Inverse folding.
């Protein structure tokens, strides 16, 4: 009887393990396809996902995969309204495979934060193109210490202590501060839902000065290449 019970337990465990593996992706995402799918996105977000027009279009390179997937699905389902995203996220032209491939590709891009060393013979165009591959956000105005207090008390639980994000909460460090401010104002104006219970979320308790202080703090903790 004990032997039979053990056999049933082993069979049950085996079935559970097999069903768990069945729910996992059967293959890695296709980075080459993701790069190709990304092609039209570069017009706004830059060749390396570094964003454009000084923050009018956000940096997406290195962003958290789960957040990128979540937002792309919202754009595709027209639950997050953004007119420039309409033509690139049509259901018929943007199947799940392409969506997941482009997410994997964009999330894998690592932008340097180190100014390259130039030779005396490098011309202005060479220097400009090299600097476009460097992602350094200028220090934002504001009280860094006050921003640190606000961020640690109210923001780090979701966005992590280092601002790199968690799960489907986005990375904030290394993002254009004018873009972040625009999105925070959109949350406060109920144009974007910040959480399910309160459309404006935690941001409603802050003044614009508080928000600026948080941005000042975020720009002070940007990771740097060695």
């Amino acid at each position: 009887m004990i032997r039979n019970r053990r056999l049933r337990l082993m069979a049950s465990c085996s079935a559970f393990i097999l069903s768990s593996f069945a729910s996992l992706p059967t293959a890695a995402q296709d980075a080459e396809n993701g790069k190709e799918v990304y092609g039209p996105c570069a017009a706004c977000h830059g060749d390396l996902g570094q964003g454009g027009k000084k923050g009018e279009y956000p940096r997406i390179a290195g962003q958290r995969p789960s957040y990128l997937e979540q937002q792309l699905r919202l754009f595709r389902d027209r639950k997050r309204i953004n007119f420039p995203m309409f033509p690139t996220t049509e259901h018929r032209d943007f199947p799940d495979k392409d969506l997941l491939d482009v997410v994997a590709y964009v999330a894998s891009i690592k932008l340097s934060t180190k100014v390259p060393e130039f030779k005396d013979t490098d011309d202005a165009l060479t220097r400009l193109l090299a600097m476009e591959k460097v992602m350094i956000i200028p220090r934002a105005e504001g009280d860094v210490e006050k921003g640190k207090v606000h961020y640690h008390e109210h923001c780090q639980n979701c966005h992590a202590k280092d601002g790199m994000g968690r799960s489907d909460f986005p990375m904030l460090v290394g993002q254009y501060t004018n873009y972040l401010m625009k999105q925070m104002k959109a949350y406060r104006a109920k144009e974007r839902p910040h959480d399910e219970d309160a459309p404006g979320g935690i941001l409603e308790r802050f003044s614009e000065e508080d928000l600026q202080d948080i941005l000042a703090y975020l720009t002070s903790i940007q990771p740097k290449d060695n």
